[in-house]
Amino acid sequence: MALAGVAAAAPPSSPGATQKALARESCDGLRRAVAHDQGGATSGPLFLTSYRPANAQGEPPFEPALAGAAFTYDNALAGIALLACGERAAARRIGDAVVRAVAHDQTMPDGRVRNAYRAGPVTEEKPALPGRWDAGRKQWIADAYQVSTATGNVAWAALLLLNLHQAEPTPAYLATARRLLAWTEQNTRARNGPDGYNGGRHGWDHAQRAQTWKSTEHNLDIAVAAAWAARAVRADGQPDGPEPRQARTALDFVGRMWNPSEQRFHIGTKEDGATVSTEGSGLDAQLWPVLAAPEGSCAWGRSLDWVEKHHRIGAGYGFSREPDGIWTEGSAQAAATLVARKGAAPEALWQLLASQRAGNGLYYATPSARIATGLAIGPDSTGADFFYYRWPHLGATAWIALAATGFNPFTGKTAASEVPSCPA
Q1: Residue 359 belongs to a domain with what CATH number?
Q2: pLDDT in tens, 336-353
Q3: How distant is the alpha carbon of residue 345 from its chain centre?
């Protein structure tokens, strides 16, 4: 199962039996997630739980901080995947929750989203943030990362709304997507070193500080969302706003992270925002620029060779360079990229993804008990403490649904219809 660089376009292949079954089952898993988290409320804004144990053999003890937490990125993916599954009403419920969250933040109504919210129907004017009451300590326990705002999560919230607006034009979705992009421009633009957007804001509301590193993946997300918003604004007959310039800035940063000698992307910069981080490699940073198909995608398609050499493990792919285990979500991203760029993904990859289905309909984040990313959760971390565990994961399920249905979240279209013609 080799990943070759993008060459001349091949005609899309018809989905095989495993891919078709995976599309049905992953879409069913998302529908079950909506049914589980909506309680008795069959309409209205809704956030979905990101990690929900199936209490099956092989699952490690569950992290209490994740109980009932609805991560914005996972929900944005789930909303887009629900569109791919033909569940527009359910997708709009998540979009409506994002719109409310942007309009009515708990303490900072400046156009941001938080990294996570409390899962379930959003019945309050201000969507609740995650946390739990510790009876023994008699205090409310919250997580600093969950209440913070990462740039990539803001961009993915905008991508959800732009996908929804494309499917059914809705002024509130476009306006909120533009407000989110404006927040990144006003709060994360960092012109030092390679001009681009830094990691966001981290910490409790009274003491948030800038994440001064810049991420290839975050900037790619902004580039796509800003360019999409600009097209939507023009289609509505409105005058151009700041989005075209923002898209160019972010895409220029991505281009600067391309290493032509190694034919791969650097993950971004170090803490100073200027020094390129050349040691590590992130799977999403290699795949998403190719899947998104912005300018330069033909040359950038050679990053798939790097993925094959440095991220491949067994039938799947890991998050980090020379990985210690399979990352289900990233393996689905690889499948989605292959479908978008070459018309098909290998049968062995579909079978691997299918094998990760848990009893509750979600898919495990990894077949291993735990895998490393080589990254830190936040500035308070003392080391690389960002891991994925063998817990059923909404984000992994959503990426599998996107890959299996052939839906590209960066364009809102069927990926196989967009296979590019690139020189060999």
Answers
A1: 1.50.10.10
A2: 999 998 899 999 999 999
A3: 20
